[in-house]
Amino acid sequence: MTSQIILLDLDDPLYPYAPCNHVGLPAAHGVLQRVCPDLDLARFLTMHDEARSHWAQALAGSAASHHRVLFFKRIVECCVAEGRLGAFDPALVLDVDEAYWCAFLAHMQGHPDMESVLESLGRSSRLALVTNQVAEVQLRKIRELGIARFFDAIVTSEEAGAEKPDARIYLEALDRLDGRAEHAWMIGDSAADISGAGACGIRTIHTSEYVKSSRPIEADYTVEHLGEVLAICTSDA
Hints:
Blueprint: E1 4-8, H1 17-33, H2 41-58, H3 68-81, H4 90-107, H5 114-124, E2 125-131, H6 135-145, E3 153-156, H7 157-160, H8 167-176, E4 184-188, H9 191-199, E5 203-207, E6 221-223, H10 229-234
Parallel strand pairs: 1-2, 1-4, 2-3, 4-5, 5-6
């Protein structure tokens, strides 16, 4: 009998990203404000959004486009250009980045049913995390959540060389588990998660619990609670 494969996104199906980011950014700003006392939070957030947009375009399709340290490096460079800092300081960039992640990770709370759902899915299926980001960042999140034991494979876009919705990241996960698309599910919160998997012939479940999309996401199923995936996946196992 062919083993069923379940691919899961990390951010937002398994824990809420927004609250963590909401505490991480002020923490990062606090470190930078020590040497740039006139840099208020509103300006910092604007600079952050501009840096994020810049790298999303310049590094489109690569894991590095999400790398927070690049955002903070650009912000520090901007502070130098605006005369808030006398010179660029690599140590400052790393301190700002570490402050962000310390606050982010300390605030992480897995979905209340995360472990029970993963354990139940793992009884009848092989599981893989399939996530856009650099490996170092996602591994820190996985360690904080304590969920590595549930997965037979962890695939980041950095190591796959492609981001969702590119087919290569899904095919990499299937290859690691010796699985086939017709025997697989993808569980994710974003249009990229769902559209890319669907194009590969993978059945899809859209989770809308933590992120509400402004546009319809065409998935095989849409659920409002993580626990609802059990009835869908286990009925076909």
